[in-house]
Amino acid sequence: MKRIRRVKIVATLGPASSSPEKIKTLFEAGTDTFRINMSHTPHDELKRMVRDIRAVETEFGRPIAILVDLQGPKFRIGEIAKDSVALETGNTFILDNDQTPGDDRRTFLPHPDIFKTVKVSDNLLLDDGKVRLTVTATDTNIIISEIVVGGSLSSKKGVSLPDTIVPVPAMTEKDRRDLDYALGLNIDWIALSFVQRADDVSEAKKICQGRAAVMAKIEKPSAVTSLNEILEVADGIMVARGDLGVELPVEQVPGLQKQMVLAARQAGKPVVIATQMLESMITSPVPTRAEVSDVANAIFDGADAIMLSAESAVGDYPEEAVATMDRIALEVEQDPTYHDAISSHKIEPLATGADAISAALHQISDTLNLAAIVCYTSSGTTGIRAARERPEKPIVALTPRIETGRRLALIWGLHCVLTEDANNLDDMVDRACRISFQEKLARPGQRIIISAGMPFGTPGATNILRIAFVGDDGTGGF
After folding, report:
1. Active-site annotation holder among 8, 62, 132, 217
2. How far is the C-alpha of 441 from the C-alpha of 446, rounded, in Å?
3. How many whole angstroms separate alpha carbon 217 and alpha carbon 271?
4. Which of 153, 164, 450, 466 has its CA 20 to 30 A from that of 88?
């Protein structure tokens, strides 16, 4: 099965979509990567979903990526004595270490690290920002605040600290157990929550040891500030706009999204746009016009992938949500302004031979109007470099490793095909031409451009460019 569109679709599995039949249906509707949220998924259910996804992969003969999203640390207040209390703007509200159920004047905060790090004038957001507090005084076990935006508050609501870097690791003990189990199932990507600094990502990568790629979720202001450092160590980033919109003024999020997409492309790392893309489709079979524009803008920005969360996990119309996203993507990519939009920012190649060759692939394919770009890639790096250029011509990534094909299923524009490494130059050309012909990306008489590395099968050794004709029988020649 070959997708026509370039941007990839990530769909979250959940109660509405995790049966074997639904997984197959969502793949047929357009899903390229399945996200599994470990906040709600026990290990036995994770194992079953991975098995069912791999069965669909085998049936259709196309690599599918599995993204396991770790929960990360969660800060919550304690119990409230009544069902809820009303906090009035201008009043004083106290957070302390007293486990007595709270009221409209105080509540229990079971997180000593917050008491140690929060400072006067820092903001605290309760219940996804519905209630906003500003710290006026602190002590070892107490935070005194002014209620800046009041509202209803009930037990166990979340606490966000947009102005404070809390000295806790991005991974809890639960996350470590989940990660260890997921790695044993040969999943492809790990999404790391609560990233505040590059060291958080480095810790996860040490544990993964290359068995899965690590995607940093950018959901905190401190992560935005440290974005370049995070991009140096992460394998990709996810723009978690829902959490960013809680901890930052919502009007800043669209601009930050564009900046982060561009920064990820400059770094040669995939970027996923996530949360609330088609939110109304949780309960409606059609999206709002604003949501369609939101999805379209992410595609015009040049994002590698766009993601569905609750829409596919718990919504009433998971298949329709994926199909809608697929239609939007196809329409945008056929728009006459699309390639100008994603090429409006010059992406400078790094000063390496492999990056220079990837840039040349783009330029030569456009100049000679070639039918396709074919990349031999063992580790996946060559394919990612080719996609970074966002060429107009289709890109075929040929790899002998199923693990590489699966990871590349998340990357913009890459059509991954499993094949053995080439034996020599003639075999390299014949194999590339034959697969391009079989995948209906090139017709007899058309030319393709091929990149590979010698010695063949050596990761990171891209050093060859060849232009080849596709013969009448699908074989190739110079």
Report:
1. 217
2. 10
3. 10
4. 164
**Amino acid identity at 31:** T
Tokens of 107: 């509540």
217 is catalytic: yes
Residue 206 annotated as catalytic = no
Residues 187 and 276 in one domain: yes
Assess contact for 444 and 472: CB atoms under 8 A: yes
Identify the active-site residue in 33, 107, 275, 462: 275
Apex CA 255: angle with CA 251 and CA 257, to 5°?
A: 110
Mean pLDDT in residue range 136-164? 95
User: Does residue 478 register a pLDDT over 60?
Assistant: no
Q: Do 442 and 466 belong to one domain? A: yes
Tell me the residue ranges of DSSP E strands in 46-122. Answer: 65-69, 85-87, 92-96, 106-108
Q: Is 283 a member of any domain? A: yes
Domain shared by 247 and 314, yes or no = yes
Task: Indicate if 35 belongs to the active site.
Answer: yes
For residue 465, give the nearest of 375, 404, 369 by alpha carbon.
375
Taking only the tens place, the pLDDT of each residue in 409-431 is 999 999 999 999 888 999 999 99
Q: Residue 349 gets which letter from DSSP?
A: P
Note the pLDDT tens digit of each residue in 298-322.
999 999 999 999 999 999 999 999 9
Tokens of 262: 């561009």
With 90 as the cut, is the pLDDT of residue 472 above it? no
Catalytic: 51?
no
H helix or E strand, kind and range, residue 11: strand 8-13
**Final residue of a domain: which of 140, 160, 180?**
160
DSSP one-letter string for 274-302: ESSSSGGGGT-SS--HHHHHHHHHHHHHT
| Residue 198: CATH number of its domain | 3.20.20.60
Among 48, 76, 106, 327, the one annotated catalytic: 76
